[in-house]
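Below is a filled-in request sheet from our internal design queue. Each sheet records the structural input a requester submitted and the sequence that came back. We keep these sheets so that new team members can see what a complete request looks like end to end.

REQUESTER: design group, bay 2
PRIORITY: normal
MODE: inverse folding
CHAIN LENGTH: 250
BACKBONE (tokenized):
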């Protein structure tokens, strides 16, 4: 039996409401579940018109529920607008906006309190990989990002392993490299939360996923799905990704 591959799109700071709804209206009808993290401004309108097989998410939230945080958005607000999940700890937030593991952990806890599923992104830089620090870096991001979560909360969390050097560069990890690193991650989860949690945890892969490399990457035993940025902006390329991952209904 072929496995169910989870496909999540991250649109980043792209698409107006009209562009977002136009994209959704072009999604083929014969696909299994897919998820899209849309800009917060488009969440509500997209949620009103989305087909049932599409789940919508936000790309970020603040750790506090409300208050003097100009320009920020709360878990309640995105949930109210239609989000079912939120991407947290994306490398662009860590590296451009200096988000720490501690801050990411606070956001994770707030998202779970608000009944939003979490996709926690982790990944090493090129320098860290070259210095053979990948496992150490991932362990820290994973354990600190999910600090103090209980087993019930953990069920609402997926991990997205995205090597920073592969994001938006066109230079995806090889399937072998992805599998090796996902295997390390699964073992780290086992070490901390036990065998069952490690088996059940969805570990997505991200970084320059395209129609040409998705089948090989998702055929790896520890790659449970993908997080797609640039290639998820065009409806026909995204449809091709879904098709090549085997997520079209037979
Ligand atoms: C991402 O932003 O999560 C991502 C993986 O981007 P890209 O697919 O463009 O590398």
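RETURNED SEQUENCE:
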């Amino acid at each position: 039996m072929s496995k169910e591959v989870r496909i999540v799109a991250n649109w980043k700071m792209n698409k107006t409401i009209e562009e977002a709804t136009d994209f959704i209206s072009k999604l083929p009808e014969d696909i299994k579940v897919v998820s899209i993290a849309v800009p917060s401004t488009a969440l509500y309108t997209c949620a009103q018109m989305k087909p049932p097989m599409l789940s919508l998410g936000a790309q970020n939230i603040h750790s506090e529920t409300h208050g003097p945080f100009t320009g920020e958005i709360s878990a309640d607000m995105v949930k109210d607008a239609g989000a079912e999940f939120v991407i947290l700890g994306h490398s662009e937030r860590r590296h451009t906006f200096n988000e720490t593991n501690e801050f990411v952990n606070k956001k994770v806890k707030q998202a779970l309190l608000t009944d939003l599923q979490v996709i926690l992104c982790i990944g090493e830089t090129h320098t860290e990989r070259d210095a053979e620090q990948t496992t150490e870096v991932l362990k820290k991001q994973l354990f600190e990002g999910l600090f103090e979560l209980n087993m019930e909360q953990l069920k609402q969390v997926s991990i997205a392993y995205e090597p920073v050097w592969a994001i938006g560069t066109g230079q995806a990890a090889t399937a072998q490299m992805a599998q090796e690193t996902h295997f390390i991650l699964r073992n780290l989860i086992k070490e901390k939360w036990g065998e069952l949690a490690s088996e059940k945890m969805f570990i997505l892969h991200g970084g320059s996923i395209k129609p040409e490399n998705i089948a090989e990457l998702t055929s790896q035993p520890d790659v449970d799905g993908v997080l797609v940025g640039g290639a998820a902006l065009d409806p026909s390329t995204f449809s091709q990704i879904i098709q090549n991952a085997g997520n079209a209904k037979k």
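SHEET NOTES:
- The beta strands are 6-10, 34-37, 54-58, 85-88, 117-122, 157-161, 203-206, 225-228.
- The longest helix spans residues 175-193.
FILED BY: M.R.
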